[in-house]
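New to this. Comment on this protein:
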Amino acid sequence: MVLSSKFVAATLGVVTGFAPIHAASPEDTPDVFYFRLDNYDSTDSYDTFELRNWDVTLNLFDSPADVIVSRLDISGEAGSTVEVFPKSNPLALDGAMYLLSNTTGLGITDVVSGTNQTAEYEDAITWMSGGSCLGLSVVIPDSGMASLYALSSGSVAWDGVDGVDACAGDAATVLIGAGNVNEHAGTLRDNAKVYNLTTPENCESQADHGDTSYSNMDAPIGPLAAHYHTRGAMYYVLYGQGGKFNDEGVENDVLMPGELRFVNTGVFYGPEELTKDTTFVASIHEVDPASLTPDGTAVEQHCAFACFEELDEGEAPSTCEFEA
């Protein structure tokens, strides 16, 4: 596989901590990036959490805005509940957002509608619609530190707003966890959206869940042969021994608990090596939260989330592209 200049730059950023990458277009987005426990570039302190920031933003080939990755670290006594954003000071989102969580209980309150939901430990990932105004709480795990990775479409005002009267949006839509086969309602298992597979001849051997239009979240995942993704992917290790991803040119390609890995569209890597019985890894195949359609109905049309062909230089990878 021929390494692009952006892949080499991304690799240096991951392995050596060289100058971070700023994405203002899809061409500037790294091929692979590991968001480690300790490789963030800066920290902002708030009343209830420390916000870890990376000077890396992601912009996929059809992203309406940069996807920004941050991490909220919340300290407390094990088993206690911390109101990260109380109802009196809710988090107001302009764009949609994923939260990837290691807490044993993530409480989510829509302060507009009054609806309360809870994401359990192995739900791992939640999605909130743009325009949401939310109260958030976490149960502190035994380690004394709860962490929430935020993947947001555009920037977020992390100081919150002054009560429900300051919320400009409508009632929130919240999707939780990976769901089960043929049980998608309220979960992230499917993005029921009409996508067309480009250059299908380059994706004759493919990964596609028969009960989904476009398989978004898998958890827990198992080992998988070498492949590339049609819309990129994110991987999050909740617990266990971690996973090895065999990224070409990356010195340390093992993802450990509490860490996040991004791989861009069309980047061939693998195989994915992990032990499903003892390691919990969750994956998202719709990296940009703005691309999720929570009320979609396109269950009869499928688009593969991964292709197993290793392409020659100059061959175009297959992508799942939105049919307007």
